[in-house]
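note to self — DONT lose this again. spent like an hour looking for the file last time. sequence + predicted structure for the chain T wanted, 145 res
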Amino acid sequence: MKDGIQTTVISDSTAGAMMRQGKVQAVVVGADRVAANGDVANKIGTYSVAALARENNIPFYVAAPWSTIDMETPSGDKIPIEQRSSREVTHVGDKQIAPDGVRVENPAFDVTPARYVTAIITERGIAKAPYEDSLKTLAQSALGV
């Protein structure tokens, strides 16, 4: 808003409906790690938003510092995903909202396949598919190669 960009806050579960109604022109997310093939690990829920954007023909951009690009990791399948405490899901504050002993999956991140990513924007430049080539070019340009 400070930069004059029209801003609307929505809940996570509203994203698909807003996209379908034409109320979203582009999606920009960050990244915790980007594999050499352009697969992107980010906060849980990013993959769902990317899939919804693809379904609705909305460009999906990743804006991240070069330090998140991991040219040694070939694909997102090789990125370990942290599991967070089950208490984050079974409790609200001190109040338990799920039965004792319930099984909980609480991943902190998910991986968005490169095929859903329109471009990866870094301070070294913009990478586009095929990411193996464009990310490698950006890496080499920084080395003066």
